[in-house]
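User: MYO7A protein. Structure?
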Amino acid sequence: MKKLWTNTVPGKDSMADSIFHYYQELPKYLRGYHKCSREEVFQLGALIYRVRFEDDKSHFPSIPKMLKELVPQDLIRQLSPDDWKRSIVAYFNKQAGKSREEAKLMFLKIIFKWPTFGSAFFEVKGYKMDDLLTSYISQMLTTMSKQRSARGSAK
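Assistant: Predicted structure:
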C-alpha cells in the first residue's frame, strides 16, 4: 500500500491511475471512509459499473444484488435497491462511450477533490503508526532539504 500520496494527481500518470490508484481508492470508498453526496455516489456507482462491464448493459438487472460493489456500505440503506439502480443507470447513460480507463480516471478526479483522498485508513497498531510517522517525517525532511538547496542556489 502506498502510504504517502503527497504528489498524486489523477491524470498525471495514466498507468499508475489505471493499475494502482483506482484499485487503492475503490475499497476505501466502498467501506464508507469518505464523506460524499448522493449525486457523487450515483456518478461513482455508474463509473464503477463501467470499469467492470464497460458498455455492457446486460448486467443492469443485477445492480440491486451488487450494490455493495457499487455504493459505500454505510449509504446502501438510504434508498431502495431499485432507486439505486435507476439512478446509477441514469448516470451510466450520461457517460456513454467512455472506456474502462476513462471511467477509472473520472472516478479518481471526483474523489481527488475530497480532503480524505489518498489517506491511509487502518486500525491503530503500535508498529504501523510508528512506520507511518517515520515515513511521513522522512518525506517532510526530504522536501525541506530540497527547498533549502533550491533557495541556496537561487542566491
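DSSP finds five helices and no strands in the chain. The chain has a mean pLDDT of 89.
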